[in-house]
Amino acid sequence: MTIFQSRFRLAALLLALPLTFSACKKDKDPEPEDDNEQITTVTYVLTPTTAGAPTATFTWRDIDGAGGNAPTITSTNLRANTTYTGAITLSDETKNPMADVTKEVAEESDEHLFIYQSTPPSLLTITRTDLDKNNLQIGLATRVVTNAAGNGTLKITLRHQPGSKTGSETAGDVDVEVTFPVTVQ
Fold this sequence. Notes:
This protein is of the alpha+beta class.
């Protein structure tokens, strides 16, 4: 190889180098979209459909999130053999002012599903009474029927199901999952 050929190759390499680096230059990565909701407080209010039974309120609050302090859980007793209408509200108290996550879930109802599980199953019968634009249940509104007196738990799970909501309780990610002690008397 002659000196001329070596210099030509070196010059070609040096000219190509800036193009190589500019082709490899990365643009700033876009911020990832936060699909799951930040929920620090869940309130489930059960209002009796007939006179005589008091309204029952269940509240779960975990301001510092998973792994920090244990959540604060409060619940009230339910009356046996009674029908209630239920309404659930969600909020994010880490924001100032506090964010109403219920509104966001309602706006994206075709991507969300609440699952209500009573243990033992005979303690409560819970039916979701609201529907999204695709005629699939949501669970922001419910009908709860208590049976005979007893003790157990009520687990409420909110699943985020963008693009996969079919009515199945297993699809999607968990936005929040809370368990309340329940006494029916």
